[in-house]
Amino acid sequence: MAERTGRRPGQPRHLPRVATVVAYLAVMVLMVGGVYISAYQGSHGGGMGGVIAGVAFFAAAAVRVTLPVKVAGLLASRDRVTDAVTLVTFGVCLLVLGLVLPA
After folding, report:
1. In this structure, is the dihedral angle defined by the CA atoms of residues 84, 88, 89 and 91, taken in order, positive or negative?
2. How far apart (Å, rounded) are the C-alpha atoms in residues 45 and 88?
3. What is the reported pLDDT for 3?
4. What angle do CA 41, 60, 64 make, to 5 degrees?
């Protein structure tokens, strides 16, 4: 007996909504960690917080380039190249600011 899946035979399978948000949540955890360090440690931790936030943007760019649109979820807002260039630009800016701030 055929199992009922709730979709038509020619219809493609969709990933659960949770699976498409995992990459976004991983990047957000890194970003919140960097902002937390910058905010609560002042100028002593601002550099490390900026570096962590910059690495989060680099991770987001890598995820956006490697994963297909269906799995990238919320990281896929525009064209793949535009998203990657924007994320890398933000990552470089935060990384430079994090390394320039005095410890």
Report:
1. positive
2. 22
3. 55
4. 175
Torsion of CA 14, 19, 20, 23, to 10 degrees: -150
Listed in sequence order, the residues at least 6 apart from 55 whose beta carbon sits closer than 8 Å to its beta carbon are 30, 34, 91, 95
| Per-residue pLDDT reduced to its tens digit, 15-71 | 566 767 888 888 899 999 988 888 888 767 678 888 899 999 999 899 888 888 877
Amino acid at 25: L
- Quick one: CA dihedral 40, 44, 46, 49, positive or negative? negative
Q: Position 50: which residue type? A: G
CA distance 88 to 1: 51
Which H helix or E strand runs over 101?
none
Spatial neighbors of 64 by CB under 8 A, at least 6 apart, are: 72, 75, 76, 80, 83, 84, 87
